[in-house]
Design goal:
The complex is a heterodimer of chains A (about 325) and B (about 60).
Chain A lengths: L2 H4 L1 H10 L4 H6 L3 H17 L6 H25 L1 H6 L15 H22 L2 H22 L6 H21 L4 H24 L1 H7 L4 H4 L2 H22 L7 H23 L2 H6 L3 H29 L9
Chain B lengths: L7 H5 L1 H27 L4 H14 L1
The chains are: A mainly alpha (about 325), B mainly alpha (about 60).
């Protein structure tokens, strides 16, 4: 825990200077991460073969988003000390002194309980239970345990970010099937190369914070190898998903193009050394990171399109 | 007696208070909407089933 929580004088000084605004509390919920949660949960909900009342669907997505936000607030409460050290996170509400750690804890706990109970009431107990498990996994397993103890933190912790489409699917169907597991696996396998690319070009952040990222524990050469290996596995999974019931011709076309680009990016990262990367200010690594964002949104977008076509009975292959 | 002078604290916290107010209003709207949809879609039908059975037996 941080000395933000153990230094009352510093807290009091900050509190007297600034009154937290609503936007500061909202920032605790990690809105940018929430967009990923909302979108993938939305796809899981609509890709499911059981139609959902639009208002129930809206509420389900809202409660999943609130649950994701609550886990973000609890993450910021616990990680305030390392957030204060890292440039990328130093402006977050707690390290910048805009919100007190106790407030973040209270908001996180309250919204966690609210979101799980209301998701269960609006849809079913399985969806509510999965959301509760996701929050537990992200906060306790990833944030409190793995993040500071193992370089595999991102690999195992990535499961927390992969649950939303499965929760969306469960909210619609009341069960978890192979399609939901495939969507889970897609995000799960995507997470390590995404974060390791970030760790390569935010080079001093994790060192300074003493977070055992792969770049710190195994070196940057090893991280480049890991990115390539995980990207190959991810490409096989992503293209293979195209031949299941959530895939189709549009998904396959999108997956083929993006996976070729992603593999090329991973190969380029693998071939480079630190001298080359520093010479162009990590241009390739940054491009790969940006592409990874498009990669996930495009894959889930394609699943959504395929679900829409199936819902309206349009068979593109049958048209030829 | 009403508050004659608005304290500076109220001005600083206006945005936060408006945000909390809107959040509470949205919460009420969501609970109301869920209730209407759940009743309309017959999600509470199972709870009514024994009563219908009792009526039939009574006849």
């Amino acid at each position: 825990m941080s000395d933000l929580t153990t230094n009352p004088a510093a807290q009091a000084a900050r509190a007297s200077e600034y009154d937290a605004q609503f936007g500061d509390y909202f920032a605790l919920l990690k809105p940018r991460v929430m967009t990923l949660v909302v979108f993938t949960a939305f796809v899981g909900l609509l890709a499911a073969p059981v139609p959902v009342h639009p208002f129930i669907g809206f509420c389900a997505i809202l409660f999943i988003a609130v649950g994701g936000g609550a886990s973000g607030a609890l993450n910021m409460w616990w990680d305030a000390d390392i957030d204060a050290v890292m440039k990328r996170t130093a402006k977050r509400p707690i390290p910048s002194g805009r919100v007190q750690p106790g407030e973040a804890l209270a908001i996180g706990l309250a919204l966690s309980g609210f979101s799980c109970v209301f998701l269960a009431l609006a849809t079913n107990a399985l969806a509510g239970g999965l959301l509760a498990f996701t929050i537990f996994f992200y906060v306790v397993v990833y944030t409190m345990w793995l993040k500071r103890s193992t370089p595999q933190n991102i690999v195992i912790g990535g499961a927390a970010g992969a649950f939303p489409p499965m929760i969306g699917w469960a909210a619609a169907t009341g069960s978890v099937s192979v399609e939901a597991v495939l969507m889970f696996c897609l995000t799960f396998m995507w997470t390590p190369p995404h974060f390791w690319a970030l760790a390569l070009f935010m080079r001093s952040d994790y060192d300074d914070a003493k977070v055992p990222m792969l770049t710190v524990t195994h070196g940057r050469r090893s991280t480049r190898k890991h990115i390539l290996v995980y990207t190959i596995l991810l490409a096989a999974l992503a293209i293979g998903t195209g031949f299941t019931s959530v895939g189709g011709p549009i998904y396959l076309a999108v997956a083929l193009v993006l996976n070729v680009l992603f593999l090329k990016g991973a190969w380029d990262i693998f071939r480079r050394d630190e001298t080359m990367s520093e010479a162009d200010n990590f241009k390739t690594e940054k491009s790969f990171f940006k592409l990874s964002l498009l990669y996930l949104f495009a894959h889930f977008g394609a699943i959504l399109v395929e679900a829409g076509l199936a819902r309206f009975g349009i068979d593109l292959l049958g048209a030829f | 007696m009403g508050i004659a002078h608005e304290h500076e604290l109220h001005q600083r916290r206006r945005g936060r208070n408006i945000g909390v107010g809107l959040t509470l209003a949205a919460f009420i709207a969501i609970v109301f909407g869920l209730t209407i949809v759940k009743i309309g879609s017959g999600d509470f039908g199972a709870a009514n089933a024994p009563e219908q059975g009792q009526v039939q037996n009574g006849n």
